[in-house]
Amino acid sequence: MQTTERPAPDTARAAAWSDLLRSHGRRVTKQRLAVLDAVDRRPHSTADEVLADVRTSVYVVLSDLTAVGMLRKFEPPASPARYETRTGDNHHHAYCVRCGTVADVDCAVGHAPCLTPSEHHGMQLLTADVVYQGICADCLAAGASREQAAPEQPSAEQPLPAGG
Predict the structure, then answer these.
(1) Which has the closest alpha carbon to 130: 105, 110, 111?
(2) H helices within 68-160, ranges in order?
(3) Could you report the per-residue pLDDT of 80-102, keeping only the tens digit for each?
(4) Does the domain made of 88-149 have the CATH classification 3.30.1490?
(5) Are 37 and 54 in contact (CB under 8 A)?
(6) Pairing mode, strands 102-105 and 92-96
(7) What's the rounded Cα separation, in Å, for the pair 129 and 50?
(8) pTM of model > 0.85
(9) pLDDT tens digits for 20-32?
């Protein structure tokens, strides 16, 4: 994904907006400054246009913070990307296929990478990303309650075969 850097709001303009916000009894926040900047660059904007512009700046910031290692990007199967500040320790994730809950799973054995592949293809391996897919305790409990109420309805999820 290629992103383009948005120009930072003019420092003098941001300072003027900050003063004006304070004069109206409002706190100066990054969100308010981002909205003011978006509307200033596109006069007569709709809320959807402002949202799209501000959202673009969020993606640029997330991409940048991930690139420098301050954030870690995690992409659960069939789910939007997620970000976290826990970086550099090669932990893994457990993902509930019903509700989307994500939980950290510490590295099981040894040093990073904590899994030893059968082949490294000449690469110096740095990390291993493992996604455990399952059903969280809350969803299991909710499913058990539904099954007791209507036992004739089988669950859509099938357990993975051993070793898979």
Answers:
(1) 105
(2) 137-149
(3) 999 999 998 878 999 999 999 99
(4) yes
(5) no
(6) antiparallel
(7) 36
(8) no
(9) 999 999 999 888 9
Q: How far apart are CA 23 and CA 33, in angstroms?
A: 15
Would you state the pLDDT for residue 52? 92
Every domain of the chain with CATH number 3.30.1490 lies at 88-149
Residue pLDDT, tens place only, 120-152? 899 988 877 888 999 999 999 998 777 777 655
Residue 105 in 3-state DSSP?
strand
Task: Please provide residue 5's backbone torsions phi and psi, each rounded to the nearest 5 degrees.
Answer: -70, 130
Q: For residue 31, what is the DSSP state?
A: H
Which token pair is 5? 């850097």
Place of tokens 């690139």: 67
Question: Angle at the Cα of 137 (from 131 to 139), degrees rounded to 5?
Answer: 90
Helices (H) and strands (E) in the chain, counts: 4, 5
